[in-house]
Amino acid sequence: EAGVTQFPSHSVIEKGQTVTLRCDPISGHDNLYWxxxxxxxxxxxxxxxxxxSKQDESGMPNNRFLAERTGGTYSxxxxxxxxLEDSGVYFCxxxxxxxxxxxxxxxEGSRLTVL
Amino acid sequence: AQSVAQPxxxxxxxxxxxxxxxxxYSVSGNPYLFWYVQYPNRGLQFLLKYITGDNLVxxxxxxxxxxxxxxxxxxxxxxxxxxxxxxxxFCAVRDRRFTGxxxxxxxxxxxxxxxxx
Lengths: 115, 117
Description:
The structure holds 2 protein chains of 2 kinds. Chain A has strands spanning 5-7, 10-13, 19-24, 31-37, 43-50, 53-56, 65-68, 75-79, 88-95, 105-106, 110-114. Chain A is mainly beta. In chain A, the strands form 2 sheets. In chain A, strands 2, 4, 5, 6, 9, 10 and 11 form a 7-stranded mixed β-sheet that branches. Chain A has a 4-stranded antiparallel β-sheet with strand order 1-3-8-7, with no helix packed on it. By secondary structure, chain B is an all-beta fold. Chain B has no helices and 12 strands. At the A-B interface, strand 4, strand 5, strand 9 and strand 10 of A face strand 5, strand 6, strand 10 and strand 11 of B.
């Protein structure tokens, strides 16, 4: 069974440019999460989808970040325009509906470097 | 608000020796507690969790963790470390009262474990 896949694995962009990160969750997982780890710091929650609906987006830093999950399958996270402080590793995770006791399946992360 | 503290950025241990990676937490209600591990160039991988019941939880690869409510701690332990255990370890907490569905976890900053021969 394929795990959570993320693309790209690494993206280097200039400040002011746009980047779109993609996440394909494990097939059948209704819950999809985005987390971010800024250099050396804790992994922080960004948002949570249940199917195509945003369940909780309280962790989104600002309106430069837009997450979508059209059709309830894969998700994209767009940063526009990117700023230096957006650099970090963006993790996607998924879990089955109803399993709300913490076991998430994570992708390998997308490392974003903003110059 | 909930938080997790991992006081050590790095832990070094010799292979065959016991290891401990420390974690303390703060949460308003009763916690769900977790350990995740990240091997080089890999995603985070679930290791173990405390939900209820026995305070000593056993997980993958011989790891275990002890929930201590009075000390608000959930230290990760292993009796005999292996070089292959070298990785980045994250402790996480979720408030048990959060019933909105899903798994919004609060993570610590991570502890790099280095096991040497």
